[in-house]
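User: Can you predict the 3D structure for this chain?
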Amino acid sequence: MIMLTVALLLSLVLSMLLGVPYIDFLKKKTIGQYVLDLAPESHAKKQGTPTTGGVFIIISIIVASIITLFMAQQIEKAAWIILLTLIFMGLAGLQDDYLKIKGKENKGLSPRGKLIRQVLIALIPTIYAIMHYGTIITLGSKTFDIGFFYPILAVFVITGASNAYNLTDGLDGLAASTGIPAFTACCILAYLSGHSDVAIISATVIGALIGFLKYNKPKAQVFMGDTGSLALGGLLGTLAVVGRFELLLAIFGGVFVMETLSVMLQVASYKLTGNRIFKMSPIHHHFELCGHSELRIVIEFTIVSLILSLISIGLFIFL
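Assistant: Here is the predicted structure, written as structure tokens:
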């Protein structure tokens, strides 16, 4: 438990310290966000806000994780696999952000190009999980061997979480605030199940996100960009796969699932009936167009994320 506290505090300090010089660098290089034309009109004022803040989040997580893992003598292959996946997902997101900045519009990698990168990266922890744990999934004390369906599930969990987190990153502080309870659930579940390395890395994410919120709370000084959202979502899925609580991710990551489902339902409804279910998707934009302030939406979604995280921990303990 002491090492978890050390990991959290170390990444928190690193995130807060790195934020200032990195944001100054982005401003000098005029590396700013290009707002999607379809976004609510109120988002026009966000144009030009520095982006790719995910860079200092990722650096904080990696540095804090390595230091704490060495201190705890828990630096094993699983930890390197998790951190390597984080780096590759971050690079994919950084490429997406770079293309948007270079093209001066909110169009980066093609959906297919992004998905191919995510799937290839997701294979790294998937192969590791199969080699070390086989094709068994767990739910509390119950285990199920799903055979050749497991690699499909694991890749889906990681790529799905990466895209879902990316969709959630649409309001100041939303992805970070809802991510903190989710990664806290990861940390507790991993700790309870004996995966100390997974718990330590999860703790560093909590600290890094708290530090990032200093700069990302309304009105945001910096956005995490796809660099951060794709990487953090992929990391969330990877932690669930390596920590052996893949199924519970659907619960403690429920806010991200809800955001993704809102997009899928919106598209399906429009194609089948010509009508839209929501005023805009993802669903946080729907509430925004209903008159809710960004701050109110962030608070409400964070509360939901916290409740779902507590439910997932309860299920793990009592099942």
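The chain has a mean pLDDT of 91. The two ends are 24 Å apart (CA to CA).
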